[in-house]
Amino acid sequence: MRPKIDLRLAMAHVTEHIAAEMTFAELVKAYCAVQFDGADLRLRKWVEAFGPESAWSLSTRQISLAAEAMLQSGLYKASTINRDTSTLGTVFKWAIRRHLAPVGFVSPTIGLQRYEEAIRRVELNDEEVAKLIDGAKAFKDRRFAAFVRLVIETGARRSEILNRRWAEVDLDKRTVEVLDTKTGKPRMLFFSESTAALMKRIWPKQPPGELLFESTRVKGQPINYRNQWAALTTSIGRADLHLHDLRHHRAAELLKSGATIAVAAQVLGHSSLILQRRYGHLETKTLRAATEASWN
């Protein structure tokens, strides 16, 4: 017989969840202490505005008014405001997963209206990608070459690469396990044999608990590579290129190769709706070619 539970008795042994009393500033500081995704810089103005308030009292209306004030100031683009509110949502989701928030707490960013923003489409040809890969080898920090290759091949976010420890990397299988994603859904990243060979040369030893890209200045935190990236893109004549553009490049390459938007979204850990809006025309070409090929 299947064992039965005495639910009342079991409940008596459960430690009741008590929310952490935190100001908004304390919440952001706690998040940034363990997540190195640039939230500290992006949320600085928000901490200045709401820092002393309870982290759990910040309302959707307050965030909406602050976002509108940023837009009306003329100092911020719609895309910047959307990134800010998205980062806020990530912080609150993290707090909920870590059981810091009160029971039943709902992120005030849920249901928040996003501003319409111009779609940034950046084209990268094979020659330019090769220049990025080769140019990255010219930097004193040899790890930068591996970082650039990993971002290009996986289409991962900057933080998804920089926060990785060796316990999450398998050089033989050429995989990187990412548990702490922006969407909260773990996924696997894949890279090439050439990149695996380069990584084995750069890191003869791979202690499981160590970060791949640990800062040389701050122990236990990853380097950000902003200066190196700016120097690299300038040197190849593409100073306009953002690191995030490599995600767009990988998405485009996936769809051109015949992958569906649903598959590309899983590879990138992205929303299918956003990919459809940005790259739907590429999938349409693939579907048309497949349909026409079936006529024969």
Descriptive notes:
With 296 residues, the protein is mainly alpha-helical. Among the domains are: 17-97, no CATH class; 126-243, Intergrase catalytic core (hpI Integrase, Chain A). Helix content is 51%, strand content 3%. It contains 14 helices and three strands. It has helices spanning 7-12, 24-34, 39-42, 44-50, 60-73, 78-97, 126-135, 143-154, 158-162, 193-202, 226-235, 245-256, 261-268, 272-294; strands at 169-170, 175-178, 187-190. It has a three-stranded antiparallel sheet with strand order 1-2-3, with no helix packed on it. Strand 2 and strand 3 form a beta hairpin. Helix 7 (126-135) packs antiparallel against helix 8 (143-154) and helix 8 (143-154) crosses helix 12 (245-256). The radius of gyration is 22 Å and the shape is globular. The model has no long low-confidence stretch (mean pLDDT 88).
Following the backbone from N to C, one meets helices and strands in this order, namely HHHHHHHHHEEEHHHHH
What is the share of helical residues?
40-55%
Shape: globular
Radius of gyration: 22 Å
* Name of the CATH architecture of the domain at 126-243: Orthogonal Bundle
Name of the CATH homologous superfamily of the domain at 126-243:
Intergrase catalytic core
| Strand content bin | under 5%
Within the CATH hierarchy, at the fold level, what is the topology of the domain at 126-243? hpI Integrase, Chain A
Question: Poorly predicted ranges (pLDDT <50, ≥5 residues)?
Answer: none
Question: Which structural class should the secondary elements be placed in?
Answer: mainly alpha
